[in-house]
Amino acid sequence: MTARAPARPAPPAAALALEATLTEEVLTSFISNETLRTGRSRVVVGLSGGLDSAVAATLAHRALGARGVIALLMPYRQSDPASVKDAAKLARRLGVRTEVIDITPMVDSWLAISPKADRVRRGNKLARERMSLLYDRSAIHDALVLGTSNKTELLLGYGTLHGDMASAINPIGDLYKTQVRQIARHLRVPLAIRRKTPTADLWAGQSDEAELGFTYDDVDRLLYLLVDERYGRAEAIAAGWPSRFVDRVRRRIAGSQYKRRLPLIAKVSQRTIGIDFRYPRDWGT
After folding, report:
1. Which numeric CATH code is attached to 12-203?
2. N or C: at which end does the chain have fewer Cβ atoms within 10 angstroms?
């Protein structure tokens, strides 16, 4: 097979640019169709005050109306007060039903028996506590949990399994972080949220890019080549990317594959879930 001719990586404006109006139509239709086909008319979403959840909630509002969205604000005692304020302000702007649940008592009771837990374990606990509440509220309101993980996070495994990566439907999971920024501008998400440094708000001063060790702008351009354009390692390096960066990102993609699929099931029958039995979710309807 002839190797791909080396080329400089495409700039974000060319490779990652969205047709915003069309993208909005696709994503709002997705939310509406996938919610209504289950016999439900509402979604529940965790509003963190960050960009991803703001975009997901705004899209859901446009798809299902204010009565179709239930927003949960779930601060911890170390959460940035500005994040809670921004989340509440967006919920009021959208006019959606809102509930504030302080997760401090639940998390601190766990910390009492796990005082040596490091930052990773503590972050996972926060994410899973919040998702537990989202699914509890989804049962109360007969609603679907709306996902807020973007494509960059999913590919890098930058999220908590059964925590923030969980959902029933996810409208932004095929948008890179830089594309979420684009659609946020189109949707007129408040400027205070759009300008905010990306953070999971897991501890004071935490930022996504500092923790990852690279910017979203850089990694999105590389991910586009590796995933969308199917560049191999040698091709990515020939396109001008540092070998250490390419190897680091490729290891993250491969090492987090288990987070992006249902649990593996040992095959002993003729038709095994996830292997041979893979009908669409609306099979039989």
Report:
1. 3.40.50.620
2. N
